[in-house]
Specification:
single chain, 842 residues, alpha/beta, seven-stranded parallel beta sheet, six-stranded mixed beta sheet, 33 helices, 23 strands, 16% strand
Length: 842
């Protein structure tokens, strides 16, 4: 009885929080009917096999009414120990009897919303409000209109310039109107982009609501998705679209593209710039990380706020626990990627499941095809790099395989052997390519890399200066070395041309790195070229990076890519190589000696791929493409210094020391005044800092946290200390500095307690792994939380020392046995892979 009473108390609270009313209030009349008795008519078979109608009585737990006082939703409540899905059929009969379209199934711990006109019950975190459930009912997507909408090659151009066909410069077709199209920036769909939209329309008629476009870098995924967005908005199958990216710089790029393609018909906002009025836009662009942090997507949005969700670079953005953000929203879902992660390729599922059931769950969680409903391994639509080059839409590289004596040895099967002399003996150390700039350092080798690049790089066809280049280094320290070397050599080779602006380091530790990538693409990084007046190309010719500028970065006039590091992931290699595959026309308009206007134009025919570590050879000859993809190891959560070591300076005193004063003062529950006031002083200090304020508004959290670490923490003026600040918050877990700053600036309303965060993590887990009807939800939740907060439990589970549970105070053996076998395996893997355990430490 206690079990059921607990569930009812929680359900009552959830109904109140969602805005449902048990009694008449100032907000309106009551819209909840309790224990409503109904008669259910159903078919039955008598002992002679005759079919006849039978009437049976029953009581609805909760009946929710709409604004017209008519039944809209049946809420069926179960005891905490029972799975709410066991009441599916009973609730369906009740709903059909009273004419309600929706059902909520809940045991107070997990909840499901079921639209009887659409498929199966879906896990939800909280109950929908009266307005929300009314909005769901009033919105009736029309699959037929999606399928029959006429989409032609001018689907986007007709928004940009509705009367383009009547304009004087239009010659009747695309081929004869290239100058007109170029002058006005019109975008017509290429044949394969049009095919992608039509294939999606066909998938809709087949009942699909998830789609995956696998399109090579440079083939116009954003333009294609713009056409799909127009399709959904125009046919009113979506009221609002969410476009998820996985990097901040891609927000600005998507905003620019969608405004170019879809304005004025449809409005696009970046969420962080419109937190108060985002609902006015048709398309919202945001990073998935910003929504995932502190589970803010649940506080910021309702599941019904977006009817169409698109995930850019979906092989990265919705794998693992970030998929919970994706699953939170109702509606259609589209993934865009050039390199899907096929974690089920070549896997004998049954054999692996028998050997290690955890592995299959981890693979399915990360598998791009499974996430987007393409379990066969074939996307909804595919257009490859080979297709693009064949159709003359993309460019292939000229590979420059360059190896030094040292790198040749590092790449060999024997490796590079170094004899190290010690006091006692000689010892031989073997280094391989993976060790370069990690354990093996050679400035001379780096110098050869840079000279080889400068002597052989493709030149800009207009000015003959070094073509725009991205260099991929091993680490941030390596990037700094390469940048310094290049600027020294460029000054020797091109005196007084660049003043140390020839190459710049573009890595996450560099301030304004995101803006630098945009300026490089827009040909304005450190100004314009001084080789030719009026020519629009960046003064800086080389960006040296590590992980930035890899996926989704658009810079069509790039002529050189340098791999100054070994690469072992084929998807990473394809993404990096893809930065150079885009077509481009280099153009310069000027006036000749007769004051007549002339234009010089050169088309990009290819680009150079400098390969200093035989990466191309590796992926051409040695990499096994049929090999089962290895799962990534759980993240190492060890904190170390930036150079990988911790150095402690010691001072040893020889003076005798004596104890002269000792006083004991017990500290009460309120703590010391300094503890209570510390956070207020910290808040005042943070608010006064314009650098922090500006970068919080821009979402540059790396810079914010770096600035606080370097300029505010552990300084003698106030001596703000992380541990002291955490104590001052009076929360039962470790609060991060970012959370503190978000609280100070009102981004989050409060610090969440440990139990609130545990509930959120469990809800997220359930949304990805909805339990079957025979699963004990209460036991599942208890085990999930215990594994997170108790390191002894984690050790017992990992070592399978289950006898230790006989006397353990946190989790008993009987409680452990109540957990379904599958979840005993899945939960530890999920938590170790995706949950930062230190966030729950006291």
């Amino acid at each position: 009885m206690k079990n059921e009473a607990h569930a009812r108390i929680k359900i009552n609270q959830l109904l109140n929080e969602a805005g449902w009313r048990f009694f008449d209030t100032e907000q309106g009349t009551s819209n909840i009917v309790l224990e409503n008795h109904v008669k259910i008519t159903h078919s039955d078979i008598d002992e002679w096999g005759n079919d006849y109608e039978k009437v049976k009585g029953g009581s609805l737990d909760f009946l929710l009414l709409d604004s017209n006082n008519k039944p809209i939703c049946v809420l069926e409540a179960k005891k905490e120990r029972l799975h709410p899905l066991i009441a599916k059929e009973q609730a369906r009969k009740y709903a059909n009897t009273v004419g309600a379209q929706y059902i909520i199934l809940s045991n107070g711990i997990v909840h499901y919303l079921w639209d009887l006109k659409k498929g199966n019950p879906k896990p939800i975190y909280k109950f929908p409000s009266p307005n929300e459930i009314g909005a769901i009912k009033n919105w009736n997507p029309d699959r037929n209109s999606l399928a029959t909408e006429s989409v032609e090659i001018d689907y986007i151009a007709s928004i940009q310039m509705p009367d383009y066909a009547e304009r004087p410069g239009w010659r009747g077709n695309i081929g004869d109107s290239s100058e007109f199209i170029w002058a006005y920036g019109l975008r017509f769909l290429r044949y394969y982009q049009l095919n992608a939209v039509k294939v999606l329309q066909k998938a809709v008629t087949d009942g699909k609501d998830r789609f995956l476009f696998e399109m090579a870098t440079g083939t116009g995924k954003t333009l294609t998705s713009a056409a799909v967005i127009k399709l959904f908005l125009r046919t009113q199958n979506a009221k609002r679209v969410l476009f998820l990216v996985d990097r901040i710089e891609l927000e600005d790029q998507a905003l620019k593209d969608f405004r170019n393609y879809l304005k004025p018909d449809y409005t696009t906002y970046i969420f962080k710039q419109h937190k108060s009025d985002w609902h006015k836009a048709d398309i919202i662009v945001t990073t998935i990380q910003s929504l995932l942090f502190n589970n803010k997507y649940r506080d910021l949005f309702k599941p019904t706020d977006f009817d169409f969700i698109i995930s850019d670079e979906s092989h990265r953005s919705v794998s693992g626990n970030s998929r919970a953000v994706f699953e939170y929203f109702n509606g259609y879902k589209l993934g865009l990627t050039a390199t899907p992660k096929d974690y089920l390729k070549g896997v004998d599922i049954e054999r692996v499941r028998q050997n290690d059931p955890r592995e299959i769950e981890r693979r399915m969680l990360r598998d791009t095809y499974t996430t987007f409903g393409c379990e066969s391994g074939d996307p909804t639509f595919r257009y490859t790099l080979l297709n693009g080059v064949k159709d003359d839409y993309l460019r292939n590289p000229i590979v420059v395989d360059a190896r030094t004596e040292i790198t040749t040895k590092l790449l060999s099967d024997e490796g590079y052997a170094i004899v190290l002399n010690s006091v006692e003996d000689e010892e031989t150390e073997i280094f391989v390519s993976r060790d370069f700039e990690k354990r093996f350092f050679s400035q001379e080798t780096n110098s050869v890399f840079c000279k080889t690049f400068l002597d052989n790089a493709l030149r800009d066809p207009i000015t003959n200066e070094i073509g725009k280049t991205i260099i991929f280094a091993v680490s941030q320290n390596h990037a700094r070395k390469i940048t310094e070397l290049l600027n020294e050599l460029a000054e020797q080779k091109f005196p007084n041309r660049y003043s140390s602006d020839f190459a710049v380091q573009v890595t996450s530790q560099v301030g304004d790195a995101q803006q630098m990538t945009t300026n490089f693409s827009n040909n304005n990084l450190n100004g314009r070229s001084n080789w030719l007046d009026g020519y629009k190309t960046s003064k800086t010719r080389v960006c040296v990076t590590v992980g930035m500028m890899t996926t989704g970065y658009d810079c069509p006039d790039l002529l050189n890519i340098c791999l100054m590091r070994p690469i072992f992931s084929p998807s990473d290699f394809v993404q990096i190589k893809g930065r150079g595959t885009r077509k481009n026309t280099y153009s310069h308009k000027f006036k000749n000696e007769l004051n007549e206007e002339e234009i010089i134009q050169h088309d990009k025919k290819n680009f150079k791929l400098f390969d200093f570590f035989a990466n191309c050879e590796y992926f051409e000859e040695r990499f096994d493409y049929d090999e089962v993809i290895k799962l990534p190891k759980p993240k190492d959560r060890t904190v170390i210094d930036s150079d990988g070591t911790i150095i402690i300076d010691k001072y040893i005193s020889d003076l005798e020391d004596l104890l002269v004063v000792m006083e004991e003062t017990p500290i009460g529950l309120d703590g010391m005044k300094i503890d209570r006031m510390l956070f207020q002083k910290f808040e005042d200090r943070i608010v006064m800092d314009n650098i922090i304020k500006k970068n919080v508004e821009l979402g540059n959290w790396e810079l914010v946290l770096s600035h606080i670490q370097n300029e505010i923490l552990d300084k003698p003026d106030e001596y703000f200390n992380i541990e002291k600040l955490r104590k001052a918050t009076k929360i039962d877990r470790k609060v991060s500095i970012r959370e503190m700053v978000e609280k100070i600036f009102g981004i989050i309303p409060k610090f969440k307690s440990k139990d609130e965060m545990l509930d959120e993590e469990f809800d997220k887990f359930i949304s990805i792994f909805p339990p079957e009807e025979d699963v004990n939800i209460r036991a599942l939740q208890y085990f999930f939380k215990a594994y997170i907060v108790d390191q002894d439990i984690r050790k017992i589970i990992e070592t399978k020392d289950f006898h230790a549970l006989q006397t353990h105070p946190t989790l008993t053996i009987s409680q452990f046995k109540d957990v379904a076998t599958k979840y005993r395996e899945v939960i530890p893997v999920y938590i170790n892979d995706y949950i930062k355990l230190e966030d729950f430490a006291a």
